[in-house]
DNA sequence: GATGAATGAGTCTTCATTCAT
DNA sequence: GATGAATGAAGACTCATTCAT
């Protein structure tokens, strides 16, 4: 009765897993984490409740896997964008575009993502499951900031990253919810905010 | 005009209600909305579950009442701050202090408030209950912005307010969670962000 | 969400608890521990599933409380029987009657008791819950044996007690299941067994 | 007479069955009947859940087959012991050794056996499946007793057998659980009990 | 015969809500 | 108004069993 189940992760399993995560993401977007019942997730994924547990030990594990997929998803998007570009040498505007555009696009096409990423106050269970996501994102942003403003003390760099991340998180729900025109306008504002916040840091040499 | 009894007759009821809302706020802060059971709220308020339902139709009504109390609370704080001050004539720095300081103080001493105000993705039930809070806050900010930058189109003013509000919301959880020193640093950053965002709007005359 | 529920135990509660334990005992007798669902226990007790959990934290707690009631029940029966009698001075036959008769009567009128007491191989959960019962009974028998055969080493006395207890346990199911005549015959045999086993020990002085 | 294939064709099947029964026995010993899931049995037997059901209609059938194997196992052990010995002419001590030693050895090396044999109160399903085992054992003991004490009425002989069997059952769990030294001591006691119980019957001629 | 993914009824437990006192 | 026992509909999760491959 211990916990020795391997939790299948092969072959056809991968597709199933993806379907389950899609279903969970959709439900999270619609009703939130707590109200998204595992039975409902299974039903939306087109499988039985029992099958769901063949792939995930419990509900928290779904959130966790989803988190990881989000980290991975944005990392890929960012990776592609930054390929062969020296972060340090980019104009700030361009850097912001490269960082935000894929992130926004990802959140718009996965509206449930904000439950995991954009949420600022969540059940303890969810918080534990998504902490790695938060930390990964914050770490990435900290790295960029450190590269651009090397004179900043580590604590200051991390705080700056936190501020940026929280701003983006805060803006995500209205951005995702808005129609195309309003979204474009909101994104413009968001970028203006970020630029206005980061620009002075870069100008201040040691 | 003849019947002035209700005012006093409900005096005790008012206190009960306040106790319930305090209990709910505390529990929301500690475990979140879903995990805060009505029985636990009643227990913390020192009453029986049955009594709780004499004051609130259901759990959602508690969130709603709490929302209203928060609107009222921050309105009062702001009202006191702005008393006899022409919003339009204030230096931007001072305006930001006047708006944020009471809000932050309120959230710090009521950490549960972020569940209702700072949360960016919540169960449908909660979202419905707290919409009035969001709208009231956004309306107030819109009014200030319109007063300071009268050249802005109404839609732009409202969007600007939304951005400000979402930034503040996003920053609230880390601000509330931080220790005193880090909190001060974070608040400084937050104010810098807001100032950087609003300053250009005010300088641009029609 | 910790475990601070007092688990009511007063006034009307006592009757409820008794009803629940009766229901559990009956069901244990009929279908065994695992197959006795908490919902079935509640139904038989004439209450809802939710109510059951107002009195018992979980299924295991029911078994535990039942165990304690059995210890208490047999202790009372024995207590009454032994009142003012010097265990050491009693003829062996009489002692055996005094020990077994109440025990058998108790098990016959509570056929579920053998699930907790007479069972020799049980789910881990049940085993944990009933260990105190086993230990209490063995301790009591050890005390009697030590009083009657003071020359026995402690380990030997305890082993002797274990043997007696296991014999009685083993005999309980057929005794309980038999009709009146057959039961009388089985009890006669059982007493013969016990007497034959204990008699030599008492004759052997230091 | 023409078709002798089945015997060999099922050779591999026989091994599979044996492996499944071994797995079940082990699991029964470790966690009990209810907690021993069919999937776990299959896994321990090194086959898939589906394959298990090609050999056994359901879980109960496994218990039943295991019962039969135990009957067979002890019958063989006893058969070997009694070979060419006139049961009626043996000294009682020797008879008891011949009957108990193989049984104890068998249970010690198959600790799961007590779930089927030593258990005195089991789920209805299990009880049905193991009744043949109980009856076979009791029948065998009855036969021995009848042979040694022919003056006993059939009902008395059977009752005596029941008593002996239940005593042995009751002692099996502590015997199996004890370490070597304590086990030897317990077995000595057990044999003393049985001898003390049976001796008088043999001495009393009609 | 073998596989293992899939099933879905059923288990324990929780909790918003009601109601007799 | 107050109480707190009672309710019962779910929810997360399990497991004996089936079936397509």
UniProtKB/TrEMBL annotation, chains A, B, C, D:
UniProt keyword terms in alphabetical order: DNA-binding
SUPFAM superfamilies per the UniProt record, alphabetical: Homeodomain-like
A Pfam family matched in the record: TetR_C_15
UniProt DNA-binding residue ranges: 37-56
rRNA processing found in the keyword field: no
Molecular functions per Gene Ontology: DNA-binding transcription factor activity; transcription cis-regulatory region binding
Superkingdom assignment: Bacteria
HTH tetR-type domain location: 14-74
Listed PANTHER family: HTH-TYPE TRANSCRIPTIONAL REGULATOR PKSA, HTH-TYPE TRANSCRIPTIONAL REGULATOR RUTR
UniProt-recorded name of the protein: TetR family transcriptional regulator
Source species of the chain: Polymorphospora rubra
């Amino acid at each position: 009765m211990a916990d020795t189940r391997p939790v299948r992760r092969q072959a056809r399993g991968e597709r199933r897993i993806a379907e389950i995560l899609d279903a969970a993401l959709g439900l999270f977007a619609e009703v939130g984490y707590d109200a998204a019942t595992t039975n409902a997730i299974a039903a939306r994924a087109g499988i039985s409740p029992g099958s769901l547990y063949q792939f995930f030990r419990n509900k928290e594990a779904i959130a966790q896997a989803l988190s990881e997929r989000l980290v991975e998803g944005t990392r890929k998007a960012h990776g592609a964008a930054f390929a062969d570009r020296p972060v340090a040498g980019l104009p700030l505007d361009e850097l912001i575009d490269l960082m935000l555009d894929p992130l926004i696009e990802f959140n718009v096409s996965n509206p449930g993502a904000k439950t995991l990423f954009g949420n600022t106050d969540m059940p303890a269970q969810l918080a534990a499951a998504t902490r790695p996501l938060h930390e990964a994102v914050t770490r990435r942003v900290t790295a960029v900031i450190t590269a651009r403003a090397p004179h900043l003390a580590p604590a200051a760099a991390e705080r700056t990253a936190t501020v940026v991340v929280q701003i983006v998180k805060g803006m995500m729900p209205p951005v995702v919810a808005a129609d195309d025109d309003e979204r474009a306008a909101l994104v413009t504002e968001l970028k203006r905010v970020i630029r206005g916040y980061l620009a002075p840091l870069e100008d201040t040499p040691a």
